Amino acid sequence: MTQILSIQNILKKASFSTDMKESQRVMWEEERYTDGSKWRFLEHKGPVFAPPYEPLPDKVRFYYDGKPMKLSAPAEEVATFFAKMLDHEYTTKDIFRKNFFKDWRKEMTSEEKSKITDLNKCNFSDMNEYFKAQSEARKQMSKEEKQKIKEENERLLQEYGFCIMDNHKERIGNFRIEPPGLFRGRGDHPKMGMLKRRIRPEDIIINCSKDSKHPKPPPGTKWKEVRHDNKVTWLASWTENIQGSIKYIMLNPSSRIKGEKDWQKYETARRLKKCVDRIRNQYRDDWKSKEMRIRQRAVALYFIDKLALRAGNEKEEGETADTVGCCSLRVEHIKLYPKMDDQEYVVEFDFLGKDSIRYYNRIPVEKRVFKNLQLFLENKQPEDDLFDRLNTSILNKHLQELMDGLTAKVFRTYNASITLQQQLKELTSDDSIPAKILSYNRANRAVAILCNHQRAPPKTFEKSMQNLQTKIDEKQNQLSAARKQLKAAKADHKASHDDKSKKAVEVKRKAVQRIEEQLMKLQVQATDREENKQIALGTSKLNYLDPRISVAWCKKCDVPIEKIYNKTQREKFAWAIDMAEKDYEF
DNA sequence: GAATGGACTTGAACAAATTACG
DNA sequence: CGTAATTTGTTCAAGTCCATTC
After folding, report:
1. CB–CB of A586/A23 below 8 Å?
2. Correct CATH for A258-405 of 3.90.15.10, 3.40.640.10, 3.40.718.10, 3.10.129.10
3. 3-state DSSP call for residue A269?
4. For residue A342, with 0-12 CB atoms within 10 Å meaning exposed, 13-18 middle and 19 or more buried, which class applies?
5. Which fold is adopted by the domain A416-579?
6. How far apart are CA A350 and CA A358, in angstroms?
7. What is the pLDDT of residue A32?
8. Which of A134, A198, A462, A477 is the most buried (most CB within 10 A)?
9. Where is the active site (predicted)?
């Protein structure tokens, strides 16, 4: 309770606002509650369901064992899910095929079931061609047809894409129900290929306020339930059939409820900044503890702090891909090197983290940490837990005692934001705007590397790099040509000393200058792109970097905010754009 | 405490829209 | 102007963390 109250007080003091009028801002402040409720009034139109299945035209055939076969509608629908994915690597994977086939058979009639017994004898290529042709046809549609679709989408957005929460019209994040399809788990997921069933109104729980106009279910259907729970922020939910977890319809990041939460997150990280030295001293001390659980806790916290690792909750074995975070690291995920090249006490990490993204890092650690790790590894098998006396619950309980509201993920936020701030200070030159933006991207990149935000190198990367290089070469040729011309013009002017030739010199000088700038811009672009090959900047920008740092930097360096944040990002960070001055310190 | 459920944030992949280019 | 490259937006899976129950 004290925690909630203190947050409320912070909210009140800091005049949280976007581009609202003063009167509205006061209203916002009055709308914040101390009892854990999230809203007083909530009205919306309910979700938009996936369009019903449209059977294939008869000419599109499915072949079993070389012979055409007409499928019942339910079996055909599931078959189309597979047919659409034929070019995808998924359909070559054993688990995917096995899971798909098992679930597909459940949708078959008994005749189909007895006939179709081997997926390898199924030929979906005709269906696959059909869908390719369809999407090609969609691309070839006339301007008018495309415009019509766009207008229909816009109408749907206007009708279902917004809700009223308290006194504001807010954008909904995901108002469409997920369509049925084949589950695409990441990495080695044991459930990949399973059928994600179609969601019906009878599966949906609606959440809205009692005194609002309740959303109407589609004709002839009913909601599973209509409830009025203002302790939560979601508008609708349903239970998904793959993991049995709940999915939600929630508001867009631009909404008050998400913005305030985001702001709180950064305020918590700033509070960590004030006491991080104390906490670091504490865990360094704990490396010497006579209790094993405390040493483990302290080493794990060191990793979370230094390497920005995720907490690492336990996962149910066999239900998901085998991935780990800090607390769930196993012996097989680290290697210890007392000496490596010219460094001492090197730890090599190699494991699959969230989304089965590989984390690989070699890092020298302090001797005490190294000795502790050796101790933790004693008498263990590769598949044993590295921190056998620790889990995220224990760790977070400890962190809560060190600072109000502190959890493992706050370190990620804190280290990301503080790194951006430091890097911006270090890297920013008083150069041209493109050079400043390169500096910003480099600072952003340092954070993305810290957080291990990777992306698959774009398919066309090599080619686009080459194209850019060609352009640079061309520009260089242009430049030397322009310089020659300038020289000639100067000589001409020296000879004639007339106004006309003087003007010509000026014109040529300008031309050289322009080309130099263009060349510079291209070179900067090439550097930026090369450095960004496998790094994804978006995730840290959206989730880890206190936007006020970026806003302040833009103001200080005279960089228009539009160069850093696009429209959506400006909407999400409206509160920060409004709040931060050029001297803002994280 | 361990297991489970629930709510919410984070994350890469993919699709659509927009911009750059020949 | 049409096409290709790039950026922006959407999707939905996969985490974190907290509350509840036994």
Report:
1. no
2. 3.90.15.10
3. helix
4. exposed
5. Topoisomerase I; Chain A, domain 4 (1.10.132)
6. 7
7. 66
8. A198
9. 544 (o-(3'-phospho-dna)-tyrosine intermediate)
| Sign of the torsion formed by the C-alpha atoms of A429, A435, A437 and A443 | negative
Q: pLDDT tens-digit profile of A264-302?
A: 999 999 999 999 999 999 999 999 999 999 999 999 999
**∠ CA A415-A417-A418, rounded to 5°:** 65
> What one-character-per-residue DSSP string does A144-184 give?
HHHHHHHHHHHHHHHHHSEEEETTEEEEBS--BPPPPEE--
Choose the catalytic residue: A90, A283, A544, A565. A544
Q: How long is the CA A67 to C1' C14 vector, in angstroms?
A: 41
Q: How distant, in Å, are the alpha carbons of A208, A242, A310, A356 from that of A320?
A: 33, 10, 17, 10
pTM for this model (two decimals): 0.86
Burial category of A137 from C-beta neighbours within 10 Å (exposed 0-12, middle 13-18, buried 19 and up): exposed
Task: Extract the tokens encoding A32.
Answer: 């914040």
The residue among A174, A123, A255 whose CA lies nearest residue A573 is A255
Residue A505's H or E segment, with its range, is: helix A499-531
**Chain C nucleotides near the protein (CB, 7 A):** 5-18
Q: What is the pLDDT of residue A524?
A: 67
Helix axes A292-307, A256-286, angle to 10 degrees: 130
Nucleic acid strand B within 7 Å of A453 CB: yes
Give the span between the Cα atoms of A170 and A28, in whole angstroms: 13
- The pLDDT confidence band at residue A101, using thresholds 50, 70 and 90, is very high
Tokens (6 digits) for A340: 């490596």
CA separation for the pair A296, A398 (Å, rounded) = 12
What is A62-140's CATH number? 1.10.10.41
- Tokens representing A264 are 């709180």
Give me the CATH code for the A37-49+144-252 domain, please. Answer: 2.170.11.10
Gap between the Cα atoms of A238 and A246, Å rounded: 6
Angstrom CA distances, A220 to A206, A223, A292, A513, stand at 17, 11, 62, 71
How many CB atoms are closer than 10 A to CB A66?
A: 7
Residue spans of alpha helices (H) in A40-109: 73-84, 94-107
Q: Is the CB of A410 under 7 A from strand C?
A: yes
Per-residue DSSP letter, A504:
H
- Of all residues in chain A, the percent with pLDDT exceeding 90 is 71
Residue A186 phi/psi, 5-degree rounding, is: -90, 150
φ/ψ of A385, rounded to 5, equals -65, 135
pLDDT at A246 > cutoff 90: yes
The residue with tokens 């959506």 is A568
| Rounded Cα gap, residues A269 and A416, in angstroms | 10
d(CA A240, CA A255): 26
DSSP classification of residue A340? E
Q: Name the nucleotide nearest A234; use CA and C1'.
A: B7
Structural contact between residues A381 and A391, judged by C-beta atoms closer than 8 angstroms: no
Q: Which nucleotide's C1' is closest to A468 (Cα)? A: C5
